[in-house]
Design a protein that fits this description.
Length: 154
Amino acid sequence: MDDLCLRMLDRFQHDLPICAEPYQAIAEELGCSEEDIFQRLEQLNQRQALSRVGPIFDHSVAGASTLVALAVPEARIEQVAAQINALDEVNHNYLREHDWNLWFVLTGPNRAHLDQTLIHIQQQTGLTPLDLPMLTAYQINLGFALGKDSQVPS
């Protein structure tokens, strides 16, 4: 990973520009071309070091969300994970070492929509979802300092 890539990741873990040309704005701030930014993002993507680029919305303002777990028989993991991943409401899908082994976040416009999605998941998979709605949000700074001149708040 070169210096430009480290600076890009360090600087834009937070406060991604919200404008018509965000990658151009990133490039201007870092003193490079937009193509340089696209190349670094593509390299990170090819190395599977980047999961996504985009905003994180406060679910309580933008709609509703809940954490869900399924106890999936080992022989069905790939099949059920594919069914879950196909749903527009699903993000953050993870396999865990536990009886409740498939964990994901459901998001939607309201709680009623989530409830309908949970019913759909149960009907589709034959498995009963464990619904774990958030009671209290605790804000953390999920940022990592990358380099001696890091701009990530500590």
